[in-house]
Design goal:
Elements: H1 2-26, H2 30-52, H3 58-73, H4 86-111, H5 129-157, H6 181-185, H7 189-199, H8 205-224, H9 228-245, H10 251-275, H11 282-287, H12 296-318, H13 330-336, H14 342-347, H15 366-394, H16 400-414, H17 425-442, H18 448-458, H19 462-472
Helix pairs in contact: 1-2, 2-3, 3-4, 3-12, 3-16, 4-15, 5-7, 7-8, 7-9, 8-9, 9-10, 9-16, 12-15, 13-17, 15-16, 16-17, 17-18
Length: about 475
């Protein structure tokens, strides 16, 4: 009864707290607004966790990322920050609560209709467990080979001038060849597939050594490229996969695990900062903290989170003309090569509003607002909630398609403050790689048509799949 009451009160209480905190922030009451948003973050997280008892609940990850980022932004510790306008507040409000509401409606409807698979017995999509493992290993080797050869090609083209050896702070952005760089960043699937392989049956010492060597090589490549995001994916995705498949962890164990991952990642970020050859005083000049004595590591993490919201606020205050879908359709133009055509290139030349040239990350809402304004943020929240709700319903089958899709969305939800994931071509290339993997695992030697059918059904929650079978009968 108490759980039901807290769930019912979550929306009105949450909305009221949000509006109160936003009003306090608009009046310059930084500490009060920070405290209110932080309380709201803990309140929402506690209620959401009590409902599903899952630390990887997509709503929970979005809450910590979104409300946590907003609460930090209220402190206004940097000169780069300003008081947010009404359109900014309405946008972040509508996105968050619409995403949660739609997620609740969709995932809740499926939850009442079917039971979750108790263990990862549904990983295999076709054939025997031995056939599944062979096909899974072939996916691992193909993805690794494509990425490694692409990395070797970039090294040859750039004559071995790896970002880690460069004296330029932003060498990574120049170290890529259009097209083949997608295969390098897609090597992050190898550690995830390795975890699936380990969970699919007994594994020999030799197999474990091979999988460890491949994953270690990929991690080393991303270190050589000084890519913080790829290092995060390489560490977070297999960890999340293991947690999804292993259901016997205690809550305290999970909390300590995530704390450990965060500390390791934070240490890695600080290490990479020291290796990026920033000139003395460069970061302090970029971050523009009001208190110059603030530790550089804190300045980096704080700015890494809050400046993305500031870029979004600048857009809401200065944008004169909406782009009506052009920004969010960029992956289509990029992956088809149409972006190189002069008419399309001129169409894509939309203005970016940034607090400072070096800080280019934008939050997940940036392009949605740029296309349709406040209405766009509401629609994006609805779509995001529907997508995540569908993924949570799909995860109840515990098959490979569900796990691969879910862990990607988990990272996107946990880093909603960071960038425009769904108008990034790499995100959709990763989704395409996911479909390729599922197709390979669904192939059973009985024709391409049957393979496509099994692939399609792999991405259907159990309830929809049963309805589809009844319709054909």
């Amino acid at each position: 009864m108490r759980k039901r009451i807290s769930t019912i009160l979550r929306y009105p209480v949450g909305m009221l707290l949000f509006i109160t905190a936003a009003a306090a922030s608009s009046r310059g009451q930084t500490v009060l607004s920070f405290g209110l948003f932080l309380f709201l973050c803990f309140f929402e997280a506690a209620v959401l966790y009590s409902e599903r008892k899952a630390l990887l609940d997509l709503r929970l990850l979005l809450t910590v990322s979104w409300l946590g980022g907003i609460s930090l932004s209220c402190l206004k510790l940097s000169h780069l920050q300003s008081v947010w306008g009404i359109r900014m507040w309405v946008s972040v409000f509508l996105f968050y609560f619409s995403a949660l509401l739609v997620n609740d409606l969709i995932s809740g409807a499926f939850r009442r209709a079917e039971e979750i698979s108790p263990e990862p017995r549904g990983l295999a999509l076709s054939g025997t467990p031995e056939q599944y493992r062979k096909k899974l290993m072939s996916c691992i080797l193909v993805i690794f080979a494509a990425g490694f050869l692409s990395f070797a090609a970039e090294c040859i083209v750039f004559r071995g001038e790896l970002p880690i050896l460069s004296d330029k702070p932003h060498a990574y952005t120049a170290f890529h060849i259009t097209g083949i760089h997608y295969f390098i960043v897609s090597m992050m699937f190898v550690p995830v597939l390795s975890v699936l392989y380990l969970f699919s049956g007994k594994t020999t010492v030799r197999e474990k050594l091979v999988l460890s060597a491949l994953s270690g090589c990929i991690f080393l490549i991303y270190v050589l490229m000084l890519s913080k995001l790829q290092i995060l994916f390489t560490a977070a995705l297999p960890a999340m996969t293991a947690l999804l498949l292993q259901r016997r962890f205690k809550t305290r164990t999970l909390a300590l695990f995530f704390l450990g991952v965060f500390l390791v990642f934070a240490a890695g970020v600080i290490l990479l900062m020291s290796m990026r050859h920033y000139p003395e005083g460069y970061l302090e000049k970029i971050f523009q903290f009001r208190d110059s004595k603030t530790p550089a590591a804190f300045q980096y993490v704080y700015t890494y989170i809050v400046n993305n919201f500031e870029n979004l606020n600048l857009l809401t205050e200065n944008l004169q003309h909406y782009s009506f879908g052009i920004r969010q359709l960029f992956p289509l133009f990029a992956l088809t090569g149409a972006k190189f055509l002069p008419p399309v290139a001129s169409l894509l030349s939309v203005e970016q509003y940034l607090t400072i040239e070096e800080l280019t990350t934008l939050t997940v809402l940036y392009d949605a607002y740029g296309d349709f304004g406040v209405t766009g943020t509401l629609l994006f929240g609805v779509l995001f909630g529907a997508f995540t709700g569908y993924a949570e319903a799909l995860l109840r089958k515990r098959n490979t398609a569900a796990v691969l899709l879910y862990v990607q969305l988990a990272v996107y939800a946990a880093l909603a403050f960071f960038t425009t994931w769904f108008s990034n071509p790499t995100t959709w290339f990763w989704f395409a790689v996911t479909v390729f993997i599922v197709m390979r695992l669904s192939a059973d030697g009985d024709g391409f048509k049957e393979c496509l059918r099994r692939t399609w059904e792999a991405f259907l929650p159990g309830r929809l799949r049963e309805k589809r079978k009844e319709k054909h009968i």
